Amino acid sequence: MKQRLQDIWRHKRSRYMAVNVTVGALGGIVAGYVAYSIAVNFFDFDFLFAPYGSPDRSSIFQALDIEASDPRWLGMLKGAGNTLSVVGFAIVSASLLGLAIGVARLTAHPLMNTLGNLYVQTFRNLPLLLIMFFFAFAVFRSLPQIESRSGVVGVVYVSNRGLALPWLEAASSLWTLWALALAAAVALAWFARRWRLQEELRTGRSTHPNTWGVCVFLFVAAATYLALAAPVRVTLPEVTQSASGFYTYEGGNVLGLGYMSAFISLTLYFSAFIAEIVRGSIQAVPHGQVEAATSLGLSPYQRFTLIVLPQALRIMIPLLNNEYQNTNKDSTLAHAIAYGEIVLISNRIVNNAGNLLQTYIFIFLVFVLTNLIISLVMNSINKSVRIR
Amino acid sequence: MIGALPNASALSRRAAHARARLFNTRTNTALSIVAIVVGGALAFLLARFILFEANWGLVAINRKLFFVGSYPPDEAFRIWIAVFITAVLAALSYGLWGGRLRPYAIAVGVTALLILTLGLGTELRIEERQYTEEIQSASGQTTTVSGIERELVFDRGWAPTWLYAVSLGLALPFGAPWLLMAAVFALLVVGAMAGRRLTRWKSNPILLQSIGAAWVLLIPVVVLLQVGVGVDKWESAFLDLLVFAVGGFFSFVIGVFLALGRRSPYRAISVASVTYIEVVRAAPLLVWLLFATFLEDELGPVGEAFSNISLTYRVMVVFAFFGGAYIAEVVRGGLQSIPRGQYEAADAMGLSPVEKYAVIILPQAIRAVVPAIIGRFIALWKDTALLAAVSLVNTLEKAKKVLGSQTDIAEGAFFEIYIVVGLVYWLVSYLLSRLGGAAETRLRVGAR
User: What's the sign of the alpha-carbon dihedral A22, A25, A27, A30?
Assistant: First the structure.
């Protein structure tokens, strides 16, 4: 018997077979156990159709506010929407801030350099949850009361209830048409820019492609706006007092404390990481490139946008991809400051209904899907900036 | 803009300068004004808060809560033993590593001086007063309300407030056992000097191995010391450190095995490793932590057995397995950087697969990614803040509790508390990042 086992072990193919079968069987047992546990209560989806129970208005879009009567599955979808609405804006603002700070850290300007360094060292070494707590419990709590009407009267209000901003409101049912027209305007502007760019390459004379693009967009947007008889209008926030003496905001859009804290914290925290990525990638562009551009007589701005940035982007984008996925995943921490993102909503459902595995598999799928989307977008950008 | 071409040696220094001027040739002044206004405003606000507005007495009186929580005072020796061992080991390693002694000794000395003397002449106590108050209600009736009013008395003695703010002495000086603190600082200096002496035998493998073994043994020793107190007594920064140490240690072990498993020639092993790594990395840590918290009714007998373990241990397990998936990816990068020739040479020498990896491949692979591994440890340390989200009392949760329970003396002291808690987290991760930087230059990663 022992001899037999030794023979199996010595013979390469039989050894591979033995290990693969053993490990595969072990993995199968684990997977089967999990699948069985899921199956025991997984196919019970009735809980999803019960009403969610408690309203949650921490969203920034009215459409995503959760009503008590909403079924639970809708609550979860809206929670996922809330996650996306903080992650999307945070990714954009963190990238812009990170780009600015990363470039500031590269400048020879000593003050900018020091400030950038201080910023990065501060936020990179603090836990994100602490930054969120700091904003939610220290900064926003110490803001003035709503009745003091702080801010720009009639336009923007700041209080310990949140930030009230002017917002767009549908004036007629034609607004969907206008939204489509805006998308078309973007496409038209893109084509106009490309056409001017080709002209520039052909003739060698400056044809202002970017200005053209912006003008085309503005023209199409304004023309369709007028043609559709002003389908959207701006609403301004107002501080009003109800009959019972309570102050509330009316009109505009109120960005609640949860959203603001989550958004600002994600922006500050991830901009520090993005700044480091930007700095590293720009430094990795060989200096000869800058010298060559200088000797061609390009302006500093042209050198950066035409020579350095395109090359730095190739290094940057895979790293940014990773950082954006982290932003997406770390947005879950906002549940600790009562922002109604997916984990908060799901936990309320788990507390009420007790279907842990179903809800958590939903969370898991949401993150797999959103990270996949981020990855696909970044990979397509990566393809467009690669060396051709 | 086109100046004289710099010579090669000055090129890299000039490079940063030249690239920087891409933007600010014409806007240099504007940039300066912006920087001065923004930086000045921030510095002014911060200084005004630290020097005049902040209620540091509140932090000082709660110092113990922030560091060890409600740890039983009778058992304090367990923490002191851990502190002593860690101090000696850290100092020895610093000396052996070839760290510069003079700035180190000065830094330790100044810190010691600040911490040990800041408490002199300081008075810190909570005064309780009985009070009665007459309240007139809207209907004209008067009711008498009486109760106990607490007030924090904080007389700072000789030291100006900012000294408290800039040193860790902020929380430590008041009533910490002087002799023990002094001994720790003395050990830090003497240990480093001894370590420097030992550099003479730096090539002696037994010395290096025993120091390494001591570091590895430190974590189980510290944890075993604490097990006697009971897991529910672990709180605050101390809990964060324990979870970080245990989670970090095991995540490294798990990570190395997963990285090897991912490259295994056995298809089943590599598929299992890849599946594990990708599944764990797909979901946020918070989701795994909450999952481990709520697991009781799910996953049948296994879930039940797991949920019978104390939550603190469960969280450590989650940290180890979560961190392991990330460290595996880092180590994989290291393994990929090893030239094929190394594998072939090991095979040619007739080493067994275990010997090949343990002696030839892994030491080189891990050495190449030490800075990245330290980066993962920094992330893991910061992630310990998440314990607050699963209702374990870590530093962050303790801050919330102090603010919530001492409403009379902690009224509106959100900034003080969160700044100090932030300092605790910041300091550890900053030191770790410095360690990573030192490792990068010392191991000459990238130069090979």
Answer: negative
Within a domain: A96: yes
Of B1, B20, B399, the CB nearest to A294: B1
Edge-to-edge strand ranges of the sheet holding A253-256:
A151-152, A156-159, A162-165, A253-256
Joined together, the tokens standing for residue A242 give: 């109800």
Summarised one tens digit per residue, pLDDT across range A71-91 is 888 888 999 999 999 999 999
CB atoms within 10 A of CB B47: 12
Query: How would you classify residue A235: left for phi > 0, otherwise alpha for psi between -120 and 50, otherwise beta?
Result: beta
Mark yes or no for CB contact A347/B290 under 8 Å: yes
Tell whether the model's pLDDT for residue A200 goes beyond 80: yes
The pLDDT value recorded for residue A230 is 82
Domain tally, chain A = 2
Alpha-carbon distance of A211 to A203, in angstroms, equals 18
Judged by DSSP in three states, B394 sits in coil
Given B36, B268, B298, which is nearest A37 (Cβ)?
Answer: B298
Look at A356 and A304; give whichever has higher pLDDT.
A304
| Confidence label for B97 from pLDDT (cuts 50, 70 and 90) | confident
pLDDT at A9 over 80: no
Owning domain of residue A296: 62-147+253-384
Cross-chain residue pair A129–B265, CB shorter than 8 Å: no
Domain-embedded: residue A28: yes
* φ, ψ dihedrals at B135, nearest 5°: -115, 130
Share of chain A above pLDDT 70, in %: 99
Put simply, the answer to whether B382 touches A134 (Cβ < 8 Å) is no
Q: Is residue A258 part of a domain?
A: yes
Q: For all residues of chain A together, what is the average pLDDT?
A: 87
Domain that holds residue B108: 72-122+157-228
Mean of pLDDT values over B423-448: 80
Reported confidence tier of residue A135, pLDDT bands at 50, 70, 90: very high
Q: Is residue A87 part of a domain?
A: yes
Q: Which of B67, B46, B58, B160 is nearest to B421 (CA)?
A: B67
Min Cα separation A252/chain B (Å): 30
The CATH number given to whatever domain includes residue B377 is: 1.10.3720.10
Residues B237 and B266 occupy one common structural domain: yes
Residue contacts between A and B (CB atoms, under 8 Å):
185
Both B293 and B223 in one domain: the answer is: no
Chain B residues touching A103 at Cβ < 8 A: 23
Could you read off the pLDDT of B39-86 as tens digits, one per residue?
Answer: 899 999 988 887 777 777 777 778 778 888 888 888 888 888 888 898
State how far the Cα of B381 lies from the Cα of B434, in Å rounded to an integer.
14
What whole-number distance in Å separates Cα of residue B43 and Cα of residue B31? 18
Task: Give the pLDDT confidence score for residue B147 in this predicted structure.
Answer: 80
- Give yes or no: residues A13 and A87 share one domain: no
Task: Give yes or no for residue B442 having a pLDDT over 80.
Answer: no
Give B96-130 as a DSSP string.
HHT--HHHHHHHHHHHHHHHHHTTTT-EEEEEEEE
Query: Do residues A261 and A341 share a domain?
Result: yes
What total number of domains does chain B contain? 2
Give the C-alpha distances (Å, rounded to integers) separating B438 from A191, B189, B261, B443, B445.
52, 20, 30, 8, 11
- Cα B397 to chain center, whole Å? 16
Contact criterion met (CB below 8 Å) for A132 and A262 = yes
Spell out which residues of chain A touch residue B295, defining contact as CB-CB under 8 Å. Answer: 356
Q: For position B445, what pLDDT does the model report?
A: 55
Tokens of A266: 């994600």
* Inter-chain touch B290–A357, beta carbons under 8 Å: no
Using the Cβ of A343 and the Cβ atoms of chain B, whether some distance falls under 8 Å is answered with yes
Interchain contact, B24 vs A27, CB within 8 Å: no
